[in-house]
Amino acid sequence: MSERKIRVLVAKPGLDGHDRGAKVVARALRDAGMEVIYTGLRQTPEMIAEAALQEDVDVVGLSILSGAHMALVPRIIELLKANGQESVKLFVGGIIPDEDVPRLKEMGVTGIYGPGASTEDIVADVRQSVLAAA
Amino acid sequence: MTLAQAVLDKDRLALSRLLTRVENDTQEGRAALAELFPHTGKAHLIGVTGAPGTGKSTLVNQMALHYRKQDGKRVAIVAVDPSSPFTGGAVLGDRVRMRDLAGDPNVFIRSMASRGSLGGLAQTTAAVVQVFDAAGFDVILIETVGAGQAEVDIARLAHTTLVVEAPGLGDDIQAIKAGILEIADVLVINKADRPGVENTERALKSMLELAHPVKRVFRHHGQTMTVPAQEVEEDTLLWIPPVQRTVATDGTGIPELAEAIARHAEHLRQSGDWVARERARLQSELDALIQETLVSRFRADVSEKRYEEALSQVIQRSLSPWEAVRMLMNGRKG
Fold it and tell me: How high is the ipTM of this complex?
């Protein structure tokens, strides 16, 4: 029996086209031994929820630099729930103003990371969240 | 309701969860596979292999669109990407090229990491394909890791194997392609809008002609010479892999490719090769399971201590490996 692999969906919802950060995080998670499904740019919340369902991921990581996080994140949470995936952990990275952080956490986002966050912290937090849920 | 029953009822979340258990080779996954097995054997399994960057994912995307629009078939896609040999991690990026398929409940895309397997597929890809088959998908497209020469596992799994090439991959194209050509049921030259497509096509066709000579008459130094055609027995149906040009980014050549695939399926059925391939596939699966079961039974019968003793005797050269095996198998203390 092979060990259980942590599966993570890394997605870029919305219209900004900068996926450098998402790729850096995807790579860091890969180097930590996780299986990262990368979906590419300009995904709708529906596409992200569908991919999360088909790939049976433990974690969804969103990269949002456009400022649309307060619209996108709740929609994605809603769709994950509708699909029966309420146990999936959600992480958000990008440009998130401080005042939005508590509100996002309240919605159920596990971790939020801005510019300068260390990939080691992200990897540790992702692993911790999955192990805690298991 | 068991997970397997939910899968038969077309529950997508249950399907996805079962795929994970099957991929991880858990007890639960195996039990479900056993339950689903009678429902398998209906899907057309199409393998897509070829070197990295030839456009396999984009081609799979277009083929899935075609099967949805033209035939209304339910399509599953299993896309395998490599795991890191150092960390065991993987970035699975085939979905990036398959965004046109989003929002269609009759398409299901699953990414798999190869997890150390070297044949171009993961160890459990065949089992994952079985789950999709039982779940009622008509066509299952299996995309291998970017493959060079030795990744031929797909030919054992799929009914129809496509080998994807692209123009301009280098002058050594023939040498490289000689190995993988053998498993192709259909050859695809993708990116056929690129310069050099004629050269690639000529190279592929001449390779095919070596395997399947056609009668040719030509003049050489003023003499008329004849290359005889391959002798074919009357009752054997010979399949000569067609060479199809496609441009997967805009869909050019996809209907013709689908037609070639359909002709191949028809050929398999008429020639009896479909049954033969199924038999070979299930036999190798059965053999692998027998092997695995024997090994685990052996491990259960023979204590770790006795095994270690035998091993240390082998290391000291006081016992040969063959004698050690005989001793352990016979259950003698030695």
Answer: 0.92
Tell me which residue in A39, A47, A55 faces B110 most closely, judged by beta carbons: A55
SS3 A121: helix
Strand partners, B8: none
Q: How far apart (Å, rounded) are the C-alpha atoms in residues A5 and B89?
A: 9
B40-272, CATH topology level = Rossmann fold (3.40.50)
Task: Measure B55 CA to nearest chain A CA, in Å.
Answer: 16
Residue-wise DSSP of A29-53: HHHTT-EEEE--SSB-HHHHHHHHH
pTM, entire model: 0.88
Strand order in the sheet with A7-11: A109-113, A89-94, A59-64, A7-11, A35-38, B90-92
Domain ranges of chain B: 40-272, 302-329
Q: Which H/E stretch holds residue B132?
A: helix B125-134
Task: Give yes or no for B19 touching A (CB within 8 A).
Answer: yes
> A3 or B279, which is more confident?
B279
What residues does B31 pair with on adjacent strands?
A: none
pLDDT tens for each residue of B133-157 = 999 999 999 999 987 666 778 988 9
CB contact under 8 A, B17 and A56: yes
Determine contact, residues B42/B154, Cβ cutoff 8 Å. Answer: no
Task: Note whether A86 contacts B: Cβ–Cβ < 8 A.
Answer: no
> Which among B92, B113, B115 has CB closest to A38?
B92
Alpha carbon separation from B221 to B29, B95, B213, B214 (Å, rounded): 68, 56, 22, 21
* Architecture of domain A7-133 in this structure: 3-Layer(aba) Sandwich (3.40)
